[in-house]
Amino acid sequence: MILAFITLSFFDVLDILLVAFLLYQVYMLTRGTVAINIFVGLFLFYLIWLFVTALNMELLSNILGKFIGVGVIALLIVFQQEVRKFLLHLGSRYNFSQKFSFEKWLAVDDKSIKDKEVEDIIESCENMSNTKTGALIVITKRTDLFSFAETGQILKARISSSLLESIFFKNSPLHDGALILDNNRILAARCILPVSDNPNIPGSLGLRHRAGIGISQMTDAHVIIVSEETGNISYIMGGKIKVRISSDELRRFLCADYTSFVV
Fold first, then answer.
1. Spatial separation of the C-alpha atoms in residues 37 and 54, rounded to whole Å
2. Distance from CA of residue 39 to its chain's centroid?
3. Domains of the chain listed by start with CATH number
4. Residue 169: per-residue pLDDT
5. d(CA 244, CA 199)
6. Hey, CA dihedral for 238, 242, 243, 247, is it positive or negative?
């Protein structure tokens, strides 16, 4: 019995589970993108190297082994966006500076959107939806978005429905780009966001939606979009989008009631 010679300790089982978890995280990061095809190709390349090594094909094995030797560097270059997203996600989830900050101990949550501002956002989105005024609103969560805010015009203004509508008015110099909300304030307008390269995004969604999906893939920010073509309101979280949402759905989502919102 071969199994009689196999011994598994607690750390062996833990090792297997950790590897399985890491592989699952890699799959979740690359799912729906062209990176998954690259990952499969690299895995097949590794299997071929193992096969020719087992057959003692020394010349081919040495050639392939040279590429395997720099495999870690190649992976970092090929999957730089996915690695950056993973590190951002990891840093945001386990941000000890926020968990042990004075604001946390004093129960001050500056990142949240207050009730009055929630109603202002909903009112402005409804009005812009009726007039088919395009809008892209990014709500900061735990990941700092100041680097993206610096690409636009810093405002640091109070949130109001009239100000939001005036910013996205088609003749406004600030209407083109994203609006970033942070600490219950309008941090910046006319900001440039990374565009998602997900090939599964429907063709009916334009560049505004792709930019919203892109920033939600890279950070934990939540995004509200008003379509200029249809007037539909959409919400994006974690790279997933739900289109044609109602005002009640938008209110529940802004109030962090994610359980009732299925993407």
1. 26
2. 20
3. 10-102 (no CATH), 115-258 (3.40.1700.10)
4. 94
5. 21
6. negative
Instruction: List the one residue out of 132, 141, 167 whose CA is nearest residue 153.
Output: 167
Yes or no: say if 96 and 103 are a contact pair by the CB < 8 Å rule: no
Q: What number of other Cβ atoms are within 10 A of residue 192's Cβ?
A: 13
Strands 153-158, 233-237: pairing is unpaired
Using CA atoms, how far apart are residues 224 and 36, in angstroms rounded to an integer?
Answer: 28
pLDDT confidence tier of residue 104, bands split at 50, 70 and 90: very low
The Cα–Cα gap between 169 and 163 comes to: 10
- Kindly state the DSSP code that residue 195 receives in the 8-state scheme: P
- Say how far apart CA 183 and CA 258 lie, in whole Å: 20
Give the type of residue at 195. V
DSSP character at residue 174: T
| Residue owning tokens 């909300």 | 181
Q: Name the H helices within the chain.
A: 10-30, 35-54, 58-69, 71-78, 80-93, 96-99, 102-105, 115-130, 146-149, 161-168, 207-218, 247-254
Quickly tell me which residue has 């700092």 as its tokens: 144
Phi, psi angle pair for 153, to nearest 5° = -105, 115
DSSP state of 207: H
Closest CA to 186 of 219, 151, 138: 138
- Which amino acid, one-letter code, is at 161? S
For residue 96 the two structure tokens come to 């000890």
Give the DSSP per-residue string, 90-151.
HHHHT-HHHHTSHHHHTT--TTSPPHHHHHHHHHHHHHHHHTT--EEEEE--SS--HHHHTT
125 vs 110: which has the higher pLDDT: 125
Please compute the mean of the pLDDT values over residues 168-172 and round it to a whole number: 92
Place of tokens 């399985």: 20
